[in-house]
Specification:
Layout (H helix, E strand, L loop, with lengths): L1 H28 L2 H32 L5 H32 L5 H26 L3 H25 L3 H16 L14 H35 L2 H34 L5 H28 L1 H8 L9 H21 L1 H5 L6 H23 L1 H25 L10 H19 L7 H23 L4 H12 L1
Length: 472
Amino acid sequence: MFNKLLSYAPVQIFSALSVFALIAIQTRFLAVSEYGLLAVLLVIMESTRSMFAQWINTALLRFYPSAQSPEREQLLCLSSSLLWLFAAVAVLVVALCLWVFSLFSWSNMLWVALLFVAKGTYTYYLERARVCEQVNRYRYATLTQAVLSVVLTLGCLWLDGALHSALIALVASNAIALLFTLRRNPQGYKGTPVLRREFLHYGLPFMFTGALGVLATRSDRIVIAQLTSLEQAGLYAGIANLLVGLMALVFMVVALPLYPELTKLTDKPQQLRQAHSRYGGYLCALAIPALTGLCLLAQPLITVFLGERYQQLDLRVFYAIAAATFILNLRGHYLDHGLQFRLRTQWLPLITAVGFALQLALAFTWVPKLGALGAALALLIAMCVAALLSLITGRYYRYYFTWPAQLYKTLLATTVMGAVLYTLLSNLVSLAPWQQLVIGVLVGTTTYALMHWLLNTFAIRSQSLNWRRRSV
């Protein structure tokens, strides 16, 4: 499992860094109000993609690794057919959403729809490359998309610093990266009625869960824009996009390569529990120190990646959103597995809907009084409630979570890292923000890694000795 993690982790880390760069470019070239509008358009695109495309990827990940050869070809044909069928419906939904929010123009419609098609198709074929264990194709596509998203966004916005230039760059980067993974379907394979029924029964609940999930985590931009202004929505969206993107990628470094390995064990309960415990340990070992480091480095992080204009937002907003995104990903990449492994995904839309309804109710109550802080607190509380419901429902269906492996060592290492970083930063106030950030990241990472080495977490010392022997 650890070797599988290392096969994908480097490109995921590079992809995470590209998200930082992309947000930094967009927030510097676009006015705050324009960035707020971009955030609203991306909410519409992502919620539509999660509803009409992402569920297909999720179902493919669940069934493909444990399927036999004939069924695998059938799954590939079935999933790709469904993708194009639902894509046609999704374009109409995009147009409807733009009209509802008074954002419809033929230009907005064209580029948001093209971005949906490009990103939806790219992520689908990227997942196919992963489940088919085509590691090199996955790496090339991920690296290409990461580099081009930054380079093309910088070039397009430098030539014309308009909103649609940012959308054009995103469309092009996804479309070009798609070429590395785009492959024909096997010929002559059609899914059996039983296979189609199982695929749809498992996957369709994720259609509504995905859309509700995006709305629950990003509708706060729309609420702020409606109740305050696009400028306030832009300030909030800059920080939220930075944190949501980074935290999602931290979790995906572990989830992308290792989740298919877990699905291979769904018929072996004892082995699954052991593997899931180790998987949870890897998640915590990356995500807990990431959350701690982000909160401690909040001020230089905002200045370096978003600019001085975004410093006016209350740091409490940053902390609340960081905690909410951590809990959101912990639920999606760990707690929801109890229902997924038990094939009880029909409960996921209801759990997400409860969280979404609570988030909206709290946001409409608190945003007029507290502004962006009210939206951030509403998001945090809603994510906590949804995660707790997922855990309780999974246990009700007799999936008993095992304590994540080596969690106590992760907490100890994170505590030491946080203490060192807090002490260090209090002595770096005279340095430039980028210098504080670089020194803080280097010292924090080194301290954390050294603590795990001393604690021998996941037998890391013996793993290192084995690698050295192989290289000799």
